[in-house]
Amino acid sequence: MALVYLLQMAPYQTGGWYHEVAGLAFVGLLIVHHVLNARWLRAELRRHDWLSLVLDAALLICVAGISASGMAMAQHVRILQAEGLAHIARTAHACLTYAGLMLVSLHVGLHVPHGWLERLSVGRRALLVATVLAGGAYAFASLGVATKLSWGMSFPDGMTPLPLLVGKHLLLALPFVLAGCGMAMMRKKGSR
Hints:
Elements: H1 2-8, H2 11-14, H3 16-36, H4 38-47, H5 50-73, H6 86-111, H7 115-119, H8 122-142, H9 145-149, H10 162-190
Helix pairs in contact: 1-3, 3-5, 5-6, 6-10, 8-10
């Protein structure tokens, strides 16, 4: 699912038809993911794991907004058309897509194994954090994420080759994955 999400960040490079079909497939995968993990969600509710619950709810709202705005602009897979709202839909789509990338990255960070991170020396951990933050700051600036998150008008990058564009989005995601790992480590230490 993470790879599909990253490829969705390059609509001009992958093509409109792929972008729309893969977007619908992602929503389907997300539903299947939650059905398959229903027991885990119930356990979160019983444990009152508010961090995960709030993150999951925010991600659900983001994906619903991404889907609705995407369907309103769709050119190939026409489910919901809102001709007069294309400008608003495009702006909302960009904002929610980048907010969603950050939330998905935090979610992934909470759930990936992080034992390797605990075994790093303090110096190596600091070097890793500094490198990831520098890469994330570069990606944030070069992708114009601040404009997108502030509901400013922006257009997808159609000139950057797909591997480079996916790489930039991965650089943007990594600080949030690392933050999720850090939160998971703190929760683990707090539960001891």
